[in-house]
Amino acid sequence: MSTVPLVPVATDVGVRELMAVREIARAFLMAERPADVYQLALERVSPLVGASLACVYLKDEEGGDVMRLGAAHNWPERYSKFLGEMRVRMGHGPSGSAASQRQVVEVPDVFTDPALADWREVATELGFKSLVAIPLQTNSGVHGAVTFYFATSDGASAESRSLLRVVADQMAATAEKARLIDELRQSNGALRESSAELERQYAAVVEARRLQDEFLANVSHELRTPLTAVLGYLSLIDEGLAGPVTDEQRETLGEVKASSEKLLGLIGDLLDLTSLKRSALTINAVAFDPRNAVQDALAAVGKPKEGVSVVLEPMSMPVVLVSDRAKVARMLTAIFANAFKFTETGEVRVALEARGERFAFRVTDTGVGISEEAQRFVFDEFRQEDGSATRRYGGSGLGLAIARQLARLLGGDVSLSSVREKGSTFTVDLPLIYRP
């Protein structure tokens, strides 16, 4: 057994090289897996180089110094069941030496090579006398070896050696590409499975959210009905229709009524929110003076704290807004309620301005302001800057969420500008004329 350099010979071997490259390329195009590339390439190339048998040995993917059989050509049928068990150790035998030394190993005559005395019986039975083992290597390293077995001594001529080298290089490069494509195919398959799983999870989340909204809507309806009745009975008692009421009792009734109205307002917020999310609200667009919507909202929200004044700036020119007056007032009510709650002293200033085909309500307070971090989620439902149980300011965290969703329903939006401890400005931007 000897290692020899491969020297190209300028004969018709060039044509044979082209044929071999073509056959390997065809194998690559027809194969679905890297192993198929080796198998098809052996079947098509072996006749071109005159080999009676051929094998490809591949390094174990899990590491180690053992190569397994990757492909075989023209082996007797009686050996087929044993081929899968064939292993070659790196550095041992012609194939193992070719892979470990990264060079061609040629055995001109198995029967005269003393190092291969134990091969003679197998060589006789299989019908080969010489062999050439060539490493399969690319820029990423050695992948194994391909070995061609010949029926005659000195089976590999100088021309064949050059051709064999081309064959081995092309097989290695082509199989490397096939391996990358196979990995890409597997990655794409895994990605498709992940995408399908994400879609299933998303659908489950959407369904869970739908059921949650439906539950909130149903429960809110069920709560509002008896609570409205409670408020009615409280009014009857307060009016003395159920008997005389002392001043102390009337004061207690007032506190109960105020708490009940607060609870009723929270239930109304939940119903509004679920209706908005389920697109269950209809738009009743009418022409109205935007100042009337401001007055509606101020009447609904009540008075601010003592020491806080409300300033309504005059409009530069009369404007008629075509939109849903009730929803605009509901939106402004939530913004005014927020301003009144967080403003201890100073003022809440309201400015109205027409800008081309848009109209803006601007509400500025001198309250505690909102931090930059909280400004990112202040319009989210059930979110407040201080969400702890011991927070100073109460509330459900629904008002601003409802305001923004109403604004978007009407074709506009609500924006915020705020500085901590200096106050906040909420701007409601709406189209001057609502168009569905």
Summarize the structure in words.
The protein is an alpha+beta fold. It has three domains: 2-188, Beta-Lactamase, CATH 3.30.450; 196-277, Helix Hairpins (Orthogonal Bundle); 286-431, Heat Shock Protein 90 (2-Layer Sandwich). Helices cover 48% and strands 20% of the residues. The chain is built from eleven helices and 14 strands. The protein has helices at residues 13-30, 34-49, 80-83, 93-101, 120-126, 158-238, 247-277, 290-301, 325-342, 372-375, 399-409; strands at 2-3, 53-59, 66-73, 87-89, 105-107, 130-138, 141-150, 286-288, 308-312, 321-323, 346-355, 358-365, 413-419, 423-431. The strands form three sheets. A seven-stranded antiparallel beta sheet has the order 1-5-6-7-2-3-4, sandwiched between helices. A five-stranded mixed beta sheet has the order 9-11-12-14-13, with helices on one face. The protein has a two-stranded antiparallel sheet with strand order 8-10. Helix 1 (13-30) runs antiparallel to helix 2, helix 2 (34-49) runs antiparallel to helix 6 (158-238) and helix 8 packs across helix 9. The radius of gyration is 43 Å and the shape is rod-shaped.
